[in-house]
């Protein structure tokens, strides 16, 4: 019995319903982890409880993605626009992120997950910044899934950063303005050496990009579900992958 058959059996997943092609997996999956607030509201609980549930779910989903052989998982945890929320909610989200990164340090020992973050970390607390450095360093040589957590991330902000770097290089005579090309911009994004996402999943029912990976998702396949992030399960990942494998990615060709 293969690892996957055993896995499906153990988790009571009906293999027949998820006959995905493991030789044609998306290399990079991106997820907009949305719907925590509504999940809590449905249960008459404070939004913060939804965020806690969402954070627990990230661990489960990341682990699953690693197990089935996904190479990169980029998750949207806090956007540059999320600072607009009430301070108490922002504080809770920051506390949860710090907890997540601290737990990751112990959880990830002996696991092959490599953790990175993307976004402008300079606006985060010193403690979070230090924890990001620690956990990144601790897991940098792991060769399994790369879990990329977007914190204070905005696609437009990221492009502004890249443009500033390029302008500096031009001013210092390192590069010529006319030589600037797409690769130079791509290399200066937070995602640097990572491939573009193949599949972007948005739970929570909204059908918008909300400033996530706007440059990188030029040819990404989108998959949406009304399921709220804390309820989002392994089965939904498999469903999204199955749908992805039916898509005809033309990249502008015929
Ligand atoms: C996603 O859930 C978490 C963050 C944006 C930080 P939301 O908090 O946006 O949940 P809804 O969309 O209000 O339900
Ligand atoms: C996107 O969700 C950001 C994260 C999930 C971190 P939002 O809830 O902030 O997005 P909008 O406001 O519905 O577009
Ligand atoms: Mg939301």
Give the integer mean of the pLDDT values.
94
Annotated CATH architecture: 3-Layer(aba) Sandwich
Give the strand order of the largest sheet, numbering strands 1, 2, ... along the chain. Answer: 3-4-2-1-5-6
Q: Which blocks of ≥5 consecutive residues have pLDDT under 50?
A: none
The CATH topology label is Undecaprenyl pyrophosphate synthetase
Rounded to the nearest angstrom, the radius of gyration is 19 Å
Distance between the termini: 40 Å
Order of helices and strands: HEHHEHEHEHHEEH
Task: Describe the structure in your own words.
The structure is a single chain. The protein is of the alpha/beta class and 254 residues long. It has one domain (26-154, 196-245): Undecaprenyl pyrophosphate synthetase. Helices cover 43% and strands 13% of the residues. It has eight helices and six strands, in the order αβααβαβαβααββα. The protein has a six-stranded parallel sheet, with helices on both faces. Helix 3 packs parallel to helix 4 (87-107) and helix 4 (87-107) packs parallel to helix 5. The model has no long low-confidence stretch (mean pLDDT 94). The structure holds 3-methylbut-3-enyl trihydrogen diphosphate (2 copies) and magnesium ion. Residues 33-38, 78, 82, 93, 204 line the site of one 3-methylbut-3-enyl trihydrogen diphosphate. Magnesium ion binds next to loops.
Lay out the secondary structure.
Elements: H1 3-10, E1 28-32, H2 36-42, H3 47-68, E2 72-79, H4 87-107, E3 114-118, H5 126-139, E4 146-153, H6 155-171, H7 182-187, E5 199-202, E6 221-224, H8 234-246
Parallel strand pairs: 1-2, 1-5, 2-4, 3-4, 5-6
Helix pairs in contact: 2-3, 3-4, 4-5
The chain binds 3-methylbut-3-enyl trihydrogen diphosphate (2 copies) and magnesium ion.
């Amino acid at each position: 019995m293969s690892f996957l058959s055993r896995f499906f059996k153990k988790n009571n997943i009906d293999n027949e319903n998820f006959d995905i092609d493991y030789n044609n997996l998306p290399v990079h999956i991106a997820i907009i982890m949305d719907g925590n607030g509504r999940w809590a509201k449905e249960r008459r609980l404070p939004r913060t409880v939804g965020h806690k549930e969402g954070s627990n779910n990230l661990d489960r989903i990341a682990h699953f993605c690693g197990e089935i052989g996904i190479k990169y998982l980029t998750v949207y945890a806090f956007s540059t626009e999320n600072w607009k929320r009430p301070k108490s909610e922002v504080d809770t989200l920051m506390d949860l992120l710090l907890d997540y990164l601290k737990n990751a340090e112990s959880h990830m020992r002996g696991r092959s997950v490599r953790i990175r973050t993307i976004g402008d970390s300079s606006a985060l607390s010193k403690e979070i910044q230090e924890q990001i450095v620690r956990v990144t360093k601790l897991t940098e040589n792991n060769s399994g899934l790369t879990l990329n957590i977007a914190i204070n991330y905005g696609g437009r902000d990221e492009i502004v950063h890249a443009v500033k770097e390029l302008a500096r290089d031009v001013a210092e005579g390192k590069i010529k303005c006319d030589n600037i090309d797409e690769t130079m911009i791509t290399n200066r994004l937070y995602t640097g050496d990572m491939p573009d996402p193949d599949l972007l999943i948005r739970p929570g029912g909204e059908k918008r990009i909300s400033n996530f990976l706007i440059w990188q998702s030029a040819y990404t396949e989108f998959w949406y579900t009304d399921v709220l992030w804390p309820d989002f399960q392994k089965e939904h990942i498999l469903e999204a992958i199955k749908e992805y494998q039916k898509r005809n990615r033309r990249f502008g060709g015929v």
